[in-house]
């Protein structure tokens, strides 16, 4: 599932291709790919709108439109956005095709929303608010913003006795962190994933805060992590998977101590960790 670094990589590859271009009338192949408004109104509302900017909040892609509205793309499990020649047929997993105005000297092309598992959604909002997207309205702070500090993290964690790994996946607590980067941040800060969030000591929270910022920035630097599905808007895989210390490495030796990496299921999600480097305390 794309997390903050993958969505940020998608935004950075979309921006130069989309800015200043005007959308044509969308072709919706699967109605359930449209979150709101209903598909007909989505097509009417988007056609003729010009893109003024592309940004991100949490795992949501925000495409700003000249009339003040916003196209929001939520990739969820397997969503991808790709540019294809205007005449290119849909792939088996293409859900929506949005024609784009041509750029000078360039060929005509469309933006394809491709989604194998069909959990992803597109939304057209009338303004820059969150509209009906509850997940966007309730997002916690952006972890790479200056306003997100160790103190902010400490205050948020003090309110919950859930395992720290489960708390980090809560998008209302901190936006954009998912399974991969939560596991990596916990390994780097030597915290066992099952530790109750409110039991963490101030020193541990400082280390965790620094680790979250580091692992996300490294993920962006390597243009995201690809196991199966993630491709950026230019069709390239990410490169961060080879730098992961614990995620997806169950049974392999820890690069720090040599102990065998383990897997633990917390709230239905797999956690990957080193029992030696991340001892359970208490
Ligand atoms: Zn270890």
Give a quick set of tags describing it:
282 residues; alpha+beta; N-terminal domain of MutM-like DNA repair proteins; 5-stranded mixed β-sheet; 4-stranded antiparallel β-sheet; 7 helices; 25% helix; elongated; binds zinc ion
What secondary-structure arrangement, pairings included, does this model have?
Blueprint: H1 4-18, E1 27-28, E2 34-36, H2 39-46, E3 51-57, E4 60-65, E5 70-74, E6 79-85, E7 94-99, E8 109-115, E9 121-125, H3 134-137, H4 150-157, H5 164-169, H6 179-188, H7 202-221, E10 262-266, E11 269-273
Parallel strand pairs: 2-9
Antiparallel strand pairs: 1-7, 3-4, 4-5, 5-9, 6-8, 7-8, 10-11
Helix pairs in contact: 1-7, 4-7, 6-7
Bound molecules: zinc ion.
Walk me through this protein's architecture.
- With 282 residues, this protein is of the alpha+beta class.
- The protein folds into two domains: 4-137, N-terminal domain of MutM-like DNA repair proteins; 150-273, Orthogonal Bundle (Helicase, Ruva Protein, domain 3), CATH 1.10.8.50.
- It contains seven helices and eleven strands.
- The strands form three sheets. A five-stranded mixed β-sheet has the order 2-9-5-4-3, covered by helices on one side. It has a four-stranded antiparallel β-sheet with strand order 1-7-8-6, with no helix packed on it.
- Strand 4 and strand 5 form a beta hairpin.
- Helix 4 crosses helix 7 (202-221) and helix 6 packs across helix 7.
- Bound molecules: zinc ion.
- Zinc ion (ZN) binds next to loops.
- Residues 254, 256-257, 259, 274, 276-277 line the site of zinc ion.
């Amino acid at each position: 599932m794309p997390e903050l670094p993958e969505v940020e990589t998608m935004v950075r590859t979309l921006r130069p291709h989309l800015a200043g271009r005007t959308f044509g009338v969308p072709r919706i192949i699967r109605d359930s790919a449209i979150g709101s408004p209903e598909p007909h109104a989505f097509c009417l509302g988007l056609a003729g709108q010009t893109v003024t900017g592309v940004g991100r909040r949490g795992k949501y892609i925000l495409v700003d439109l000249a009339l003040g509205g916003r196209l929001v793309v939520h990739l969820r499990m397997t969503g991808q956005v790709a540019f294809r020649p205007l005449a290119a047929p849909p792939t088996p997993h293409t859900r929506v095709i949005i024609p784009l105005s041509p750029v000078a000297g360039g060929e005509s092309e469309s933006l394809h929303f491709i989604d194998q598992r069909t959990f992803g959604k597109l939304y057209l909002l009338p303004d820059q608010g969150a509209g009906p997207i509850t997940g966007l309205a309730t997002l916690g702070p952006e972890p790479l913003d200056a306003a997100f500090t160790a103190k902010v993290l400490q205050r948020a964690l003090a309110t919950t006795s859930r395992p720290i790994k489960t708390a980090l996946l809560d998008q209302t607590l901190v936006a954009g962190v998912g399974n991969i980067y939560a596991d990596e941040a916990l390994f780097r800060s030597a915290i066992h994933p099952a530790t109750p969030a409110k039991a963490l000591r101030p020193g541990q929270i400082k280390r965790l805060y620094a680790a979250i910022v580091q692992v996300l920035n490294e993920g962006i630097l390597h243009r995201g992590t690809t196991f199966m599905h993630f491709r950026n808007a230019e069709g390239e895989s990410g490169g961060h998977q080879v730098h992961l210390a614990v995620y997806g490495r169950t049974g392999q030796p820890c690069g720090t101590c040599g102990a065998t990496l383990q897997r633990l299921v917390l709230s239905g999600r797999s956690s990957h960790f080193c029992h030696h480097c991340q001892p359970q305390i208490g």
